[in-house]
Amino acid sequence: MNRRDFVKLTLYSSVMAGLGLPSTRAFAAGPNRTLVNIMCLGGADFRYMFAPNPSDADYANKYWEARSQLYSGHASYSSAWGALYSATAAGFGIYNQAGWLKAQYDAGNVAIVCNVVGSENRQHDHSQIIINTGDLNASRFALDRDGWGGRLAEAIGAANVVAMSHDISAFCKGTDPANRTAQVIHARDTRNFALSNGNNATTQRVARALKNYYKGKQLEATNKPASWPYHKFIQHEQKLREFGDPFKALTDANPIPAALLDIADSSSPNRLNRLGFAKECSNLYDSFTGAELFQLRVAAMEYGGWDTHRSQQSGFENNISDLFGTNGGLATLTNSLPADVVNNTVFVFTTDFGRQLRANGDNGTDHGTGNYMILIGPAVNGGVYGEMHPRREISTAEGPAPFDVRGADIKGLTSFERVLSRLCNWVEPGSGIKVFPNMAYANLNTYPDGPILEPGVDLSNLLA
Amino acid sequence: MPRQGRNQLYTARIILLSLTVTLLIACDNSSVTQKKAVSLWSETSVRKILHTFAYGGQATDEQIKAWAGMEPRAAIQQILTFDEVNPRLSPPEDATARMGGTLKGLQSFWGSSDQDNPVREDHRTYYDTFYTYPDGSPNAGLVVVNGTNMQRSWVSSINKRGLNPFRQKVGLFLTNYHMAVSTHKVRPALIRSMYDDIMTDLAQGKPFEQVLARGASSAAVAMQYGHQYNRFNNTSSVFRGNDDFAREFHQLFFRILGEDYTADYHENTTIEHTAWTLTGMGIDRSPTAWGVMANLSTNDYWTDIIDSSDHIDADGRTLSNMTNHHADGLEILGKTIYGTTPREKIYALSEVAINERESLDSMPVFLVNFFADDNLNDEKISEIRRLWRSIEPRNLLSFLQEYAISSTFLRSDTYKYRTAFSRNLALFNLNTVDNDEAYHNSWSPIWMINTQGALPFAPAHDVFGGQTSINAANNPDIFKSAYNSAVDGHWFVVKHSENYVENSVTKTWEKDWAKVIPKNVSGVYRVGEIAEWLWQRFIADGLKNYGPLERAYITAFLATGNDFGMTVDEFNPDVTFTAKQLESEPYKSYIAANEAVIMKLDSTDQNTRRTANYRIGWAINFISMTPYMFAMEGQ
Q1: Which of B460, B468, B483 is facing A210, going by the closest CB pair?
Q2: Is position B286 within any domain?
Q3: Cβ neighbours of B376 in A, within 8 Å
Q4: Which chain A residue is nearest to residue B267, measuring alpha carbons?
Q5: Cα maximum dimension of chain B
Q6: Contact at 8 Å (CB) between A85 and A93?
Q7: Chosen domain end from B353, B371, B393
Q8: B420-430 and B606-624 helices, crossing angle to 10°
Q9: pLDDT tens track for B376-399
Q10: pTM confidence score
Q11: Which domain holds residue B519?
Q12: Is B475 in contact with A362 (Cβ distance < 8 A)?
């Protein structure tokens, strides 16, 4: 959003609020296409979620040999498969705790893009910088730079990235070094979003002093160079001030649905394992409520706890139950939202890196490279893109089979840019190449000049 | 090697070449850098160092002036030390200093009934090492090590005179950021031992690689990363375990990604053999761990002992640490690492790792970035690397001291955003006048820090440490939380007195800014001068950013206890003023009138005195929410 749009919007909001009217309606009529990026912090082993069918004996046997440690209490793969997975029509199984994901897959709303690769350095912080910036060459020191969500919002124009997460990650930030959060709204706590105006004479004098001081500073700041380090805080105050009260009016008039409150209630039997994620789901619900005010087109969520070096099974089950379970956060959220909002929303799951093919001897998996990338939404053309359980992983034609090699990875064959740029194009036609400039070299199909694509895979119809 | 890997190696070589060239240039300019720094040395330089490295410190104004008058190198050697007590930085006032500055020592003392313990009686339970479940609860009588009290003790150490806040800040950095251990995964007593052990090593002047090796071989790290269960079968040559810390040893501790080696060598030799190094590190358990003789929770049986022999521990468990450890030398980072125990190998490997090209390049940049500079550029990075390389053996204290007095730090384009730790703890520390207040004012900032996304020994990020300054600065929710706290929770800053009970007698602590605020040449406390003194104490910028707006609002709070709008027009106070307006009449006169008000900080009348102190609290509360409290500029 440029400054003129911003001023226009805030004037509009102020006028409507002044008239005692809700500044915008709850939920946008004819909602815009919206992307929700859910960052799975720690490097998620999505291979564990999509298991080979035991009838594919060659692969399943190797798989079991390499990964049996990950299945506590099961003496054979058929036992683990029978207890833990539900078969899809395509043959592979989806972990039972991901019941909502399975239902969505069966309904044709889930795309699983296989063998996707981003960072290959296996370092958490640097890999997160790479996936969030969408730039393979991002420096490990690039702690304050633009991300692909921020660039997408800029490509759209009148749009914001709304972050439900604890921090504003690089994913959200824009390209203006003087104002990385110009098109970011932090909706971490939507029911307590506004700056306080004080509630008695004593506190009101502090609130009044700070409000007028910051207004005065806004004028001063316009004469400061971009490198002035204090811009950020004046910008925070300005944005919270302008959005806070109108948004509060909206949320006050639109209570959070009981089901969403229930999963965030620590005393409820339906509570999620991570209440923070339940809160993020409520925040996203509220943000959709205020989608017009927020100009919501890109949303950022996060879920930690994927660094499963030890006891992967229990941690993984908790995680996918929260994210993908029949009564999990996303199921509850999408059931609470109007159908036209859901129809225009796509969830994408990104993560630091994949994990190694073999279990590590500690009932977990260590850092790897390639992974699956999952997209969910009615706009997705569901199915599996690429070879889900590659034959090369069990082949011994060129030396030991990867499944037999400690430290071997899922081989990355499709660049993450290939998938995410398609998604950007769905949100805003033509934006993909702006957000991921490397896509200009896509036809070269080689690194370092162009993002790779698994042979035989066509992503052109990934999204409707 | 994959094309991408080759490309990374090629890029690394280019960087290496350009660094070498830059390094040669930088070496030629080193004497110029030092001269520039000396010419910049001033009272404001000293205050900036105190803010950057010690949450503002507790040095007196006279001491700060004395340091400013000294040759910078001599001054910095007094300002930044790793001693448990730094009497110039934090002048002792009571028994606090005698009890030393280890976390264990402080917690034991503050939780005790020692007659010299300055902690008020009703607060001593906040520091107890242990918690015993009360009668009637499901676990009645069970004893656990109290992690919350450990966190509270660390926070409390920041504003106590007679300790060393720089030491505590470095301790936080090393345990919570660089080594990234967390109470989410590790029992608190193990973390406390690790904290104290590495701080002892630093105080003894040990090279940084040995300090890191100490952490790497600790029980806390073995539990955090899970390699306490790793084992190597020396007969079958089969390793069982995870490679989590094998990787993080290089990536986190020494900042080595393996860029100077092939991907295959890094993964299959360096990482794999480091994982083998970290075998046979089973941790001892004891039902009497931490000195508890009965009813200790089994969760706290874990001790800080990793005994490399095959033995039976005090809990009756058989530990085959010698059998499970890889017996022979191992090739890592192109060298053969020898040692009969994991500890010996870790120390030997650390000697190699610290001198790796990647570590030499990255380590000092991460250090400076954490403490002092969010605006590093190629020139500064080159100078920082040169400085790190010039210090042999690598000594963290020498590096930070030299950096703090260099023109790489003391320059106008340096700035550092404050984390929730650094902002709130500076406010907490500098708003404390002396130990009477530090021990009797009941407020602790720990929950405010937590609300703003940070908590000691519970890093915000699962795998790579606490809240970063960039994250904090970009986070509007933290700003909002601080703002709303200043509006609705201002009481902790403005508090002027509090009652407490000692030996069944009710006593009162009273805020007394007169103890530290100087009178002017006329022998009075004049608002204009107090405002500038406060600004310099809390913001430390030589009044660079103390402009007309700041002057108007701060002096209004000091002179009247009200906001500036109210002092101009009490019936229409909600008015925005521009800096230009404030430099013109009639507002200029309003400000001048406020500045001329005399504050009765030394009045014999209690109410008058309290009102004066209360107004100073309002001014500080306001200062704490200016943008200048969220970041620090260079000089």
Answers
A1: B483
A2: yes
A3: 141
A4: A407
A5: 90
A6: yes
A7: B353
A8: 160
A9: 999 999 999 999 999 999 999 999
A10: 0.91
A11: 513-633
A12: no
